[in-house]
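Annex B. Sample input.
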Amino acid sequence: MQLARLFHSLAHARFPEGKNVHLAIGMFDGVHRGHQAVLAALQETARANDGLAAVLTFTPHPTRVLRPDQPTLLMMNPALKIRMLFFYGVDAVIEQPFDAAFSQMAAEDFPALLKRHIPGLKSIHIGDNFRFGKGRSGTVETLAEKAAPLGVEVTPTVSILDDKEPISSTRIRGLLAQGRMEEANALLGHLYTTMGEVVTGRQLGRTMGFPTLNFIPGVECSPRYGVYAVTVCDPSTGDTRTGIANYGLRPTVQAKGDVPVLEVHLLGDECPWTTGDYLCVFGWTFLRSEKKFPMLSMLQAQIAKDKRQAEAFFATQGKFPPY
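Annex B, continued. Sample output.
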């Protein structure tokens, strides 16, 4: 039985009476291969015990509360992260608000809080570097020690290594900042994804013969400004098209300092989407850095070149996965 339910706090979590619940805990920013290993262990335990697989995550990131002058910049907004968690097969997600009061909870009290709000809790799944509680004083050992008397087993998942280094959200954010999209995708285990609503643009691309779908992505951790080969997917229908995307400040036509914009020009002649549609954009590879051109005609020529390069790239690819 798959719930596919979202609860907006532990206090609001409601699971079927008498049903065992198995819980993974973490931020899960990017839902990368390391996270996927935790989710796989979670689901294996849940299915073996006829239980439910749930995830507890937090919003905002704890650093927004604990060190607001230097917060961790996330590569996924909460809505996309939740969608990805469901894509990877969990039954329910609990999105716990992280505020100053929650940050002061003693690590020793955390397992009891979980058991109080989830009476059917039978196991907790975490990464092997998991820390929690006031001052990040709680460790995997702390959690296991305090959870055992409650009848809850704690299962840490060993970090997944790539090139002898642990896969982490921090590592992937660094690759995105450098435009190393294919390397980032390899660590993610899926295509880098952003999701948003199509907004009305200035129609400048249309006048140059390259109409675009415009988005305000609203991501905290931005990939490198520049042009990418992308696919666009309507999550409600699965309709997927190839395209080129410019992410950045559009220095040729826009004043410096404005909000970054994602503009996507589809490679085919038909565009089935319009303003107000909610779409996913998947980044495949970085084509070039954003550049200011002296004349619009030079920008137009470069876009034509970008389009040919993307067409050649996609000619080498197989079927486009949803993630």
